[in-house]
Amino acid sequence: MGDAMTRPLLAVTLGDPSGIGPEVALKAVAEPEAQGLARYLLVGPEQIARAARDRFAPSLRLETVPSASQLRAETDVGLLSISAEPLEAFPTGQVSAASGRAAVVAVETAARLVLGGEARAIVTAPLHKEAMHLAGYRHPGHTEILGELCGKKATMLLSSPRLRVIHVSVHCSLREAIERVTPENVGAAIRMAQEAGSRLGYARPRIAVAGLNPHAGEGGMFGREDDEAIRPAVEEARAAGLEVSGPWPPDTVFLRASQGEFDVVVAMYHDQGHIPVKLFGLEGGVNVTLGLPLIRTSVDHGTAFDIAGRGVAQHESMLEAIRVAVRMVRSGAQPPPGSNPRYD
Amino acid sequence: MGDAMTRPLLAVTLGDPSGIGPEVALKAVAEPEAQGLARYLLVGPEQIARAARDRFAPSLRLETVPSASQLRAETDVGLLSISAEPLEAFPTGQVSAASGRAAVVAVETAARLVLGGEARAIVTAPLHKEAMHLAGYRHPGHTEILGELCGKKATMLLSSPRLRVIHVSVHCSLREAIERVTPENVGAAIRMAQEAGSRLGYARPRIAVAGLNPHAGEGGMFGREDDEAIRPAVEEARAAGLEVSGPWPPDTVFLRASQGEFDVVVAMYHDQGHIPVKLFGLEGGVNVTLGLPLIRTSVDHGTAFDIAGRGVAQHESMLEAIRVAVRMVRSGAQPPPGSNPRYD
Asked: Has the ipTM of the complex gone over 0.85?
């Protein structure tokens, strides 16, 4: 396909149609920088996409196509509709089963485009979990939907321009997260950090592993998991040749990484990694799904029902998600083991 | 004493003499801004104080006194020695029992000066826990030393110019921290946040309470503590008239507070609060001890043995600790119930 020279095609989902997803997606793909980086196929309800275009990107040409294969090479932004329902079917700023369903169908459709080789990466706008649940889905988020679709365990990388974080666990209680801190799980997260680093373009990523307990356990005074579960995994990975260190005190390792000392940090649970990345959120936080035979990036914010339809949503995170997806497409790093042979 | 007009006297400990404490203390009190804010009584080994003065603040006059009461009114910086041992007794950059002992004795001495009304606040440089343990002490840190000395349960406030955080628990394992998330403990932390806010000068502090689990439990899907332990405490405090809200998703509440939405955040465990405050660390993080009949602030960094004696330590945190102590002395807020009658 010669993507190193031409612009890759990205499948961009509109997220929950009741939230700010359609707004940030249209605003982002209409940016001159985004137009220069890639071509786009928006995936969502047609009426929602057209309403968002009319309001937030009125000069953008949007070509509806019945399938990705019918997108013309000269089209910058196409639209693959997954619902013919009218605008009123998707109440702005409200939880609804219709919006929950449309959001999930868009993700599944976009993922199949990438798995089938018709698009190079999927970039996603936010879902609303309650709406998904009303529609009968039980997935906590994108990562799990995509993992199920691909039959693989997906892992999420949180990325901001200053900090990249892999989690040992994400969507579970803190009690359950502690149980998941085992040498096996930490080792798997370290390997995932290695994959993330290389796919993001770091030749030999410097990986820092955070501790679980205050001060990484302070020699056993504040818990034993750091010494008994995390340290063995770090030592094994180092013996295998990875540039990895830890367990580091959790309260300073993210600061150190943000100052350039490490390329990727392995966090032990959801908020340990999410708190520091979100503090850099104004610079455009991004989620990247790893461990799957496709490239997927996403905004790191929610549907923001409270400001939906008001035109005030910031699209910096969506634009950064596009940048990261393009960087991954171009990095040339090998796809993970067992990936779909039609990928790249 | 008329401190609103004159400069209050602060007792400043030098911390572990083998670390960067003496350096940051001398650099900070020598700053013109610090000289304008307060007068100082350094508390630590005399030879250490004089060596640090000679090297890091050579133009500073340092008057050794046998007791605080003998400090002359016109002295800007006095020195109360707690050890006559030579410099060599305190090996630079190394853990030693001598340094651990000197550090603790300095804290106890300085605290008694404040409890006895001879100084208005204590500002502390960092301890080294292993050194303290070698010297036979079992306290995890300043907060516990001072709590024992005063016969009260002390609580730590982490403060930076952008963010102020109270913790439900600090120095314990994450497993133990979860057990401590009870309505009683969360309620006590909220009341402490109220005290902190008023002592820092907020007339009616806006208090945000963080959740424990990802997304504050997401309606019970990721754990029940948010709904069963935290929410009741928030509602009770609100019913009592406090301006308090939560439990909020932990990964965004600190960002929101740093943007000005809240004055004080109640964090559920050590790293939940320490990670965001340390990310702002370059602006000068400070620890404030609450719940005691004395004002105490501290740097939020450690002894940094790796750079001790090299002259490269930053003293912004120590300077900010001085600023916060002076603000608390001047705020005029009532000392906590049961405080020493000789206080203020």
From this structure: no
